């Protein structure tokens, strides 16, 4: 189980309203008690924070807002003492425009680092080099008046893209990885890898024939066949996995977010082309599914059926860029969702606060921080709502800090918090603890084969996990209103309904784990 921490929002130790590394250290016992086996930290490197750390100015230094390198070393040591691995976010598609590499690159056309980034002349008609777009809005090109060329940025203009066709860039990325691996980091989450490889001919992206300007982002107006996802991406990834192979028990989680997000074949192709001994892609399909049995059944059954032996599925229900799980599916569905995600094969990544049912928080106009929402003319929802402070207690500012936090605390913090849910045996938090404990102790869940259950009800989704003669059935009633006969019988290991359920029936939104005879 990988637990993602957004450091700015996890725990503030020095009362400046921003979470930090000592704050994370102070909560390692909580994470160990929950049953977390690995933590993934969003970037804590030196950064001007245009994109809150995803614009890196120095890959081998800690930004003072989060603490010091000594704090990071202590975090790694303290986590390891609790059998918790530490995974760092690495952002290699781009840097900050304040990184020394880019400062050198933009200083002159003949600087040795000029080709570390993607520079182009204007088109013959004097317009932009091509029609490529920035995810954050507008063209992906910014004119530099000093050197009279455009540089490419797939995201904010302060985040120039590195040129992954340059062997020196690849060597520098490898050196950054070795720096952290030598400090006993257990692995990395690789950000935005789909943008590493662009069309070397810089051809225009074609228009998207299904684009709906009334509902879609302007970025979706093009099919990004040339500005990202070129075949060389797998050569780039191989550069990174080659580094990991020289170290014992290290692993890389890859953010692979495809233009066709519901296409499982894209993931199979990705697995086919990477070293699956040391790397695997996050599966983001869960982030797009509506809460109904048919959607989850179709996706999970087909995905599991297509996975080849030795390939690790990594399911995820939320992250720092997507609406929180409780907001997407409703708070009443968070318990069956917990059972689903923690009984699937492979690894599961969860976002901080998911275990207590934190929801998106409405951010007043004056408190918006996310550049995605703040850009001129933007009508898009920003990412602040899912990045608000962790709700630890009913104390002021939810126990996150004694100072006004950088983002508002959720309005339900007095009832939705770790302290309150720890004291409630029927809480979502205590369900997660039971599921973590079961996952840790059960070889069936850790290693068992997955088989779909053919359930003759459109509101039911179920599957079995079997290992060396032991067999568990997981059955979920997705209906909010209907009681349904349970299609499997046996010893009930766990149920999300302690009141009113019988062995014969599944209550609305009940998830059940049943021991059955193999």
Give an overview of the whole structure.
With 518 residues, this protein is an alpha/beta fold. It folds into three domains: 326 residues, Alpha-Beta Barrel (TIM Barrel); 53 residues, Oligo-1,6-glucosidase, domain 2, CATH 3.90.400.10; 69 residues, Golgi alpha-mannosidase II (Immunoglobulin-like). 25% of the residues lie in helices and 17% in strands. The strands form five sheets. An eight-stranded parallel barrel has the order 1-2-5-9-10-11-12-13. The protein has a five-stranded antiparallel β-sheet with strand order 14-15-16-20-18. Helix 5 runs parallel beside helix 6 and helix 10 runs parallel beside helix 13. It is globular. The two termini are 27 Å apart. The model has no long low-confidence stretch (mean pLDDT 95).
